[in-house]
Amino acid sequence: MDVAVGVHSEFSGVEGDFIELDGVEKVFDVRKKTGFLRSERRQVRAVDSLSFTVPRGEMVGYIGPNGAGKSTTIKMLTGILTPSGGRLRVAGIDPSRERTRLAQRIGVVFGQRTTLWWDLPLIDSYRLMHRMYRIPDGRYRENLDRCVELLQLADLLDVPVRQLSLGQRMRGDIAAALLHDPDVLYLDEPTIGLDVISKARVREFLRDLNAERGTTVLLTTHDLTDIEQLCRRVMVIDHGRLMYDGPLTGLHEVGESERTLVVDLERELPPIEVESARVVKVEGPRQWLAFPAASSAAPLVARIAAEYPLVDLSVREPDIETVIAKMYAQGGAEKAVS
Ligand SMILES: Nc1ncnc2c1ncn2[C@@H]1O[C@H](COP(=O)(O)OP(=O)(O)OP(=O)(O)O)[C@@H](O)[C@H]1O
User: Fold this and answer.
1) Cβ–ligand 1 contact at 44 (below 6 Å)
2) Ligand 1 atom having least distance to the Cα of 75
3) Cα(154)–Cα(223) distance, rounded to whole angstroms?
4) Ligand 1 site, residue 328, Cβ cutoff 6 A
5) ABC transporter domain spans which residues (predicted)?
6) I need a surface site. Which of 14, 83, 186, 338 has the fewest CB within 10 A?
7) Above 90 in pLDDT, residue 20?
8) Mean of all residue pLDDT scores within the chain
9) Collapsing DSSP states into helix, strand and coil, what is residue 74?
10) How many of the other CB atoms lie within 10 Å of CB of 49?
11) Mean pLDDT calculated for residue range 138-144
12) Nearest 5°: phi and psi at 333?
């Protein structure tokens, strides 16, 4: 249960930290209407004594329920918002003081919004960014060619952004964030709303980018599969505070959460009987089995494949809200922040 505290020290204080937060706070002043012509001032502490470091080249998941403070953190890391307290540095730069200088070093992708010009063909947005970021011609060409090839954008360059599908637009946005070769990439829900194939393509691209270029990546997502496939380390934030920092498996252990194995059998059969999982739902030849999220699905799959007429299967991660709710229920959250 004390996994979180132990694991945290493994990652902190590493030399060459690229992102550094020390006791960072963000308090918003909000006015709430309490009656006709009357309002009350209230303070919302969106980020509360947040401290963590990310070494150069690490790909880290940054997750939490709605309203936890993730976007506020990312906005402070880009310099859009100024912290109310604490110390924050990205590549040695104080983001809110030197926002323009920092812009050359960072790339940002917001899954729910586009940075592309809606009415223009994709390539025109890239040409504008070329000028805006004053990217040397050779470097721009090289980065564009690479992104076009790896993100399969060749057929889309002349299409107005408004006509792109969500998955195509997302790939277009990721390329836009990388044209100036940033050292760090902030990704806010990069796979939201994408189909399975588009998700796989985006994840593969990010994995290669991180491996080949050593780009530091901070990834915010509600999809734990993104984290499982991309990040060795995950940070959980709730009510503006860091609740957990360590590997995803450790988070599952703290929360004692479960994954679901969905199996399609050749025909309708009685519930599957295996030691390490329990059937939670049966619908015709399809069965849902819950098993501990911290353990591997491989032995379970092998066992079922050997004993049952298996046609197809998939593994579903628990949702973040469930994992966090279980963490609280087990008392894991208190241990992680202590
Ligand atoms: N400009 C603002 N003014 C007042 N309150 C704000 C402002 N921005 C964010 N908040 C509040 O700060 C808290 C954290 O919000 P934030 O957007 O950072 O959460 P989040 O983790 O990104 O959530 P989501 O997953 O829904 O995007 C919330 O209570 C939110 O209402």
Assistant:
1) yes
2) 18
3) 28
4) no
5) 19-264
6) 338
7) yes
8) 87
9) helix
10) 16
11) 92
12) -65, -45
* Percent of the chain whose predicted confidence (pLDDT) is above 90: 57
**How many Cβ atoms are within 10 Å of 92's Cβ, its own excluded?**
11
Distance in angstroms (rounded) separating the CA atoms of residues 80 and 95: 8
d(CA 7, CA 10): 5
The pair of three-digit structure tokens given for residue 118, joined into one six-digit string:
């809606």
Residues 6 or more apart whose CB falls under 8 angstroms from that of 326 comprise 255, 256, 257, 332
Q: Rounded to the nearest 5°, which phi and psi values hold at 45?
A: -90, 95
More confident of the two residues 87 and 191: 87
Q: Edge to edge, what strands does the sheet with 106-110 contain?
A: 106-110, 184-188, 216-220, 59-63, 233-238, 241-246
What is the whole-number distance in angstroms between the Cα of residue 43 and the centre of ligand 1?
A: 12
Q: How confident is the model at residue 330 (pLDDT cuts 50, 70, 90)?
A: low
Q: What is the DSSP string of 142-168?
A: HHHHHHHHHTT-GGGTTSBGGGS-HHH
pLDDT digits (tens, 9 = 90+) for 147-165: 998 888 999 999 999 999 9
Is ligand 1 within 6 A of the CB of residue 311?
Answer: no
Ligand 1, atom 30: nearest CA belongs to which residue? 67
Nearest CA owner, ligand 1 atom 2: 28
C-alpha to C-alpha distances, 8 to 3, 54, 157, 172, 336, nearest whole angstrom? 8, 12, 44, 35, 9
